Amino acid sequence: MKTALVVIDVQESFRQLENWAAVSEPKIVEKVGRLVAAARAKGDLVVWVLHAEPGSGDAFDPALGFVRPIEGLEPAAGEPVVTKSSHNAFTTTNLQQLFTTEGVGEVVVSGIRTEQCCETTARVASDLGYRVVFVTDATATHPIPHRDAPAGRSLAEVLADPRTLGTDEIVARTEYALAGRFARIATVDELTA
Known about the structure:
Helix content is about 35%, strand content about 20%. The chain has about 190 residues and is α/β, with parallel strands linked by helices.
């Protein structure tokens, strides 16, 4: 059974957002880089997934040039790069077809945002029958404002609101939701030892 490391949305788009200053894992590039190096050394498939929202005029609009891996990460020749427009990496891409063609049975999930695109991809992968490893410390997220909070607030206002869901809570909730149901939780150190 072949393993695929999926690097989800570790892209310059996120560094353009104000909330990047509150990212849960400032060393995301280093940690994902370690996973990529280990996967390549083992001969595993490395798949790069980028999120794009064409015509949006924001950091996820490909026309602005930020829909590319964060500086320090570079797909190697022959490594697939897929672009999605949904939260999970399967629905709007050919990822499942690629995995079938390559004989992938295990999917290792890393990337940005822990509870959004990464968790959703892990859940879909599990439902599709893949064995899933979720590398929490190779994911990153940002504080989430309360659903009733006014839109357009500054990061300082979001962080000052006691109803804001902090990154530690987000990460813990994701692990509770995935572990034993959708994925095995692992660390970068475990997978690169």
